[in-house]
Specification:
Elements: E1 2-9, E2 12-22, E3 26-31, E4 36-42, E5 70-71, E6 95-102, E7 107-115, H1 118-123, E8 128-136, E9 140-148, E10 154-156, E11 158-160, E12 163-165, E13 172-175, E14 181-184, E15 190-193, E16 198-199, E17 204-208, E18 214-219, E19 225-228, E20 234-239, H2 241-248, E21 259-266, E22 272-274, E23 279-287
Antiparallel strand pairs: 1-2, 2-3, 3-4, 5-11, 6-7, 7-8, 8-9, 9-23, 10-22, 11-21, 12-21, 13-16, 13-18, 14-15, 14-17, 17-20, 18-19, 19-23, 20-21
The structure holds 6-O-phosphono-beta-D-tagatofuranose (TA6).
Amino acid sequence: MHTIKKLELNQQLTDLDILEIDSPSCSACIALQGAQILQYQPKHRATPLLWLSQVNTGQLGKALRGGIPLCFPWFGAHPQGLQPAHGFARNQIWELQNVSYDEAQAIHHVDFILQDSPETRKIWSHAFRLKLRISCGRSLNLDLHVENIGSQAFEFSFAWHSYFQINQIRQTEIHGLQNAEFIDQLQNNHHFLETDAVTFQQEMDRIYPKASGYYQIVQAHAEPIQIAAPSCASVVIWNPWQDKAERLGDIAEGDWQHFVCVECGQIASETVRLAAGSEVHYQLKITDL
Ligand code: TA6
């Protein structure tokens, strides 16, 4: 069962259209802005898998903090510093192309499209088409096709900027990054080698350009969250800690302790050059099974 309605935040209706999903396997909420899944909770899990800030304003054109925003066609700061960080795809209204339900599997398949427009071409001159399928069942699957429908090759970087709900950041580990090199964005982008599970004692902002594609969020008293994205070369691990969370201004006091970002994509040295008429596919699977 699915319904389309306006997103309500703090008892206030916003201008944002959302698709609400409920089935025997999960409940989920997807904003048409950014084709951004905001909430996802499998029925077998006591808590949501994704974190969503409780102090989002729901302003049109500004990505909500939480869920899985799609950073495209660049990750991080704009290469020339002329545009907002993380590209524009997460701020655009995507076309909701289809919603189908596989009763046997209890999975909703939700298909979105974003194509270049006069607005996007003012920011980034290339002709592109993004197709995103979000499949909500006992696990969460995202499947992205990036098409170059223009006459010139273009380069892009991207990431699914996923916010995962956790009990306490200080008691959380990220496994699967051993022996991967990372760029520490908080230490002048110096390169380091990851030697063990990632643990958190302060703000963290690390880009692993080439990593395994398989990660686990491990914490006491909760099933590990498995993240599988072997088609994505890169991953980012981020937590703002207290000071940056306060500077960002859209994270409730202390709530920075209850999420960790594990962001799969193609970043830094793994930026993609896509020839005219070509396309590439990326998949992300999130589950606690
Ligand atoms: O993924 C980590 C990061 O690049 C951080 O540097 C921080 O800026 C975060 O993304 C959030 O960015 P946003 O534009 O969503 O506030």
